[in-house]
């Protein structure tokens, strides 16, 4: 079996080629393509009965949706100096362009059901984004749940549609959330905007960044434990997935529970 | 005669579509819902659903009613989604004389609203299980965005040709109208030949429609437009009247001077340019080209069966040529 990480890297290049636009590239940075998300999709699709090319097309399509959503997330709420007018305009249009491409690719595959699955996911993600942006959050747990939905909904909807096992779906949710929490922590440390930091500052007055970082660390720790438990109970043939995730999120190899064969 | 009066026989179906549009954008989040509904309430000509319904009369309209309506609703939602994002692109404070979502709620809410509406449009269109509908529509969506990117690329650039302008308005306006006609025909089971004839009609009508929009940007009052007169030129967009006016050396010189190192043209400059343009035959020439497209539109549907829908399409083409607001 070919190395999944290698295949994910190849897919990343394929996606980069697909979204290439000479004028847009002059003004805005190449979009971030999360290789771990490609890895997850690769894992979802690897046992499905379809050609390798078709699998690549599906993974590209789903990643295009993610890239479109991420690109629109770059638009600042108010017009400020952090983004030039041209950068802003092209970020709006680049996101729309990637959305058009995902629809185009799926229409070429004649997979109307998948178009619907992705559209529903985008609709729901935007509902959650509005909730987060508009601060309609009552508790820190609700905040974490909302962020987790934004991070994982696209992938969990696809997984359910192609009948991926429930445990793998749960693992995906935790893995993506841990990655997002690390990103939030980095933002706080680098004095950049973080929804978690913003929420904590609003809820608890006179708190410092260290308190927020402590809250994020606690959440990471608890999510890692949950992820570890999920991984331990996976049958042996999931060894590649287990080891990859453990390496990526720096989980200690759990030997306290006998792994099921 | 008003455009809406000539397709009175579609009134009930258009009302159904209006109701479905309202139902479709009932987001759970109150601001998302409010922003979407506000856009819907702002009105608009609903020209895309009209073309879908009229084109569908050439197939088995009654038998495929649900499918036809899904196409009509989806196309109007796509149009709405692009408007919300366009207002962020253009920094627009007003649309149809009313404050834009971007202006009231900020860029981020406008982005989420546009993405939400587009997602709803695709959810609606996926109730239509005809691959050719999705192939046509998705290609159009990609080209529409490519057209908008090209528009930014060509801003403040006097070294572009008429073909650049025509390609831009094709992608910006004509393709979505042409697609509305074609998809209405496909969804109702009209023949491929008829669908293509209607596509060509829609394309030519769309080209004329945009040219007239571009003319009105110079000739209508800001009250009629719901935005400042000459706003295209303020943003550096070279439209058809400007192309023709550029044949006049005095205008060209003034335009080049205004565009030099300019990100925006100031009010005095604009007024001077509009005055110079009005002394040329640019507006007259623009109407001539618009009329040429309208003649092509009428020719495209010449062989379609003679029915009420065909007569209405012919009347619409004629009225578009006379549009003054």
From TrEMBL, chain A:
GO BP: menaquinone biosynthetic process
Top-rank taxon: Bacteria
InterPro entries according to UniProt: HEPPP_synth_su1
Source species of the chain: Pseudogracilibacillus auburnensis
Top-level taxonomy: Bacteria, Bacillati, Bacillota, Bacilli, Bacillales
Protein name (Swiss-Prot/TrEMBL): Heptaprenyl diphosphate synthase
TrEMBL record, chain B:
Keywords in alphabetical order: Magnesium, Metal-binding, Transferase
Cofactor or coenzyme needed: Mg(2+)
GO molecular function: heptaprenyl diphosphate synthase activity; metal ion binding
Record SUPFAM superfamilies: Terpenoid synthases
Superkingdom of source: Bacteria
Record function comment: Supplies heptaprenyl diphosphate, the precursor for the side chain of the isoprenoid quinone menaquinone-7 (MQ-7).
The protein's name in its UniProt record: Heptaprenyl diphosphate synthase component 2
Species annotation: Pseudogracilibacillus auburnensis
């Amino acid at each position: 079996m070919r190395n999944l990480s290698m295949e994910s890297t190849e897919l990343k290049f394929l996606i980069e080629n697909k979204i290439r636009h000479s004028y847009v590239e002059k003004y805005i940075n190449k979009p971030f393509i999360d290789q771990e998300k490609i890895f997850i999709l690769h894992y979802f699709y690897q046992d499905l009965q379809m050609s390798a090319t078709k699998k690549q097309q599906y993974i590209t399509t789903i990643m295009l949706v993610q890239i479109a959503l991420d690109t629109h997330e770059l638009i600042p709420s108010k017009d400020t100096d952090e983004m030039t007018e041209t950068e802003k305009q092209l970020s709006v249009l680049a996101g729309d362009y990637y959305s058009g491409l995902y629809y185009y690719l799926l229409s070429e595959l004649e997979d109307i059901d998948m178009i619907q699955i992705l559209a529903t996911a985008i609709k729901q993600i935007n509902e959650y984004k509005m909730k987060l942006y508009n601060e309609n959050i009552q508790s820190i747990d609700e905040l974490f749940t909302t962020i987790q939905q934004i991070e994982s909904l696209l992938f969990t909807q696809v997984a359910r549609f192609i009948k991926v096992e429930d445990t793998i779906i749960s693992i995906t949710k935790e893995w993506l959330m841990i990655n997002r929490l690390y990103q939030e922590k980095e933002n706080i440390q680098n004095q950049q905007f973080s929804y978690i930091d913003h929420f904590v500052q609003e809820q608890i007055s006179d708190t410092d960044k260290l308190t927020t970082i402590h809250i994020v660390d606690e959440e990471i720790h608890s999510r890692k434990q949950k992820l570890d438990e999920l991984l331990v109970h996976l049958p042996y043939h999931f060894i590649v997935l287990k080891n990859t995730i453990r390496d990526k999120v720096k989980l200690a190899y759990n030997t306290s529970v006998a792994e099921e064969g | 005669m008003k455009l809406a009066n000539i397709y009175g026989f579609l009134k009930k179906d258009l009302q159904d579509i209006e109701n479905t549009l309202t139902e479709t954008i009932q987001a759970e989040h109150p601001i998302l819902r409010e922003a979407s509904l506000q856009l819907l309430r702002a009105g608009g000509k609903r020209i895309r659903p009209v073309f879908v319904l009229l084109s569908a009369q050439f197939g088995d309209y009654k038998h495929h009613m649900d499918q036809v309506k899904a196409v009509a609703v989806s196309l109007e939602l796509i149009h709405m989604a692009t408007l919300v994002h366009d207002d962020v692109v253009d920094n627009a404070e007003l649309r149809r004389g009313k404050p834009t979502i971007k202006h009231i709620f900020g860029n981020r809410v406008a982005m989420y609203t546009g993405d939400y509406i587009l997602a709803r449009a695709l959810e609606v269109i996926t109730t239509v299980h005809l691959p050719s509908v999705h192939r046509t529509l998705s290609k159009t969506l990609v080209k529409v965005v490519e057209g908008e990117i090209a528009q930014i690329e060509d801003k403040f650039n006097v070294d572009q040709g008429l073909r650049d302008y025509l390609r831009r308005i094709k992608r910006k306006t004509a393709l979505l109208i042409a697609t509305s006609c074609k998809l209405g025909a496909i969804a109702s089971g009209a023949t491929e030949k008829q669908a293509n004839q209607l596509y060509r009609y829609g394309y030519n009508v769309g080209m004329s429609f945009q040219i007239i929009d571009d003319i009105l940007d110079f000739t209508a009052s800001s009250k009629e437009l719901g935005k400042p007169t000459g706003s295209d030129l303020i943003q550096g967009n070279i439209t058809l009247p400007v192309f023709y006016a550029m044949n006049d050396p005095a205008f060209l010189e003034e335009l080049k001077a205004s565009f030099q190192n300019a990100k925006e043209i100031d009010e005095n400059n604009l007024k001077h340019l509009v005055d110079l343009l009005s002394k040329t035959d640019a507006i007259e020439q623009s109407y001539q080209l618009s009329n040429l497209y309208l003649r092509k539109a009428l020719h495209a549907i010449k062989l379609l069966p003679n029915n009420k829908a065909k007569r209405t399409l012919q009347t619409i083409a004629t009225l578009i040529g006379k549009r003054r607001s």
